[in-house]
Amino acid sequence: MVKSIVKDEFFLKQKSLPATKADQQVMQDLLDTLKANEAGCVGLAANMIGVKKCIIAVNMGFMNVAMINPVIVAKSGPYEAEEGCLSLAGTRKTTRYQEIEVEYLDASWRQQRHKFSGWVAEIIQHEIDHCSGILI
Q1: Can you give the pTM of this predicted structure?
Q2: What residues act catalytically?
């Protein structure tokens, strides 16, 4: 189900809780909401649809992918990026990393560990920050 985008910074700055299998519908709502906003959005975190759970959805270019309880376990190549966010007005500068390695559960609740680089890595970092209550 497509959900409204939360713009309340107080809510967004609260740390998300680990997701469980009981949060399966939240994951689907996140994917549905990302699809509905794809003209101006490449990633979402569950708190952006009002749920404080550590689930993100990322546009990988060819499809949208959900990541449950993602953690960056390695990063390299810091650079300055300027990002926007559906929950915030305007753009802001932030430090991102060119290459990251992420551990997460996939939509079937299987453990994954993958390396990402460039634009997709930047999106993942932005959404993982949301899970920690960090806004750009």
Answers
A1: 0.95
A2: 127
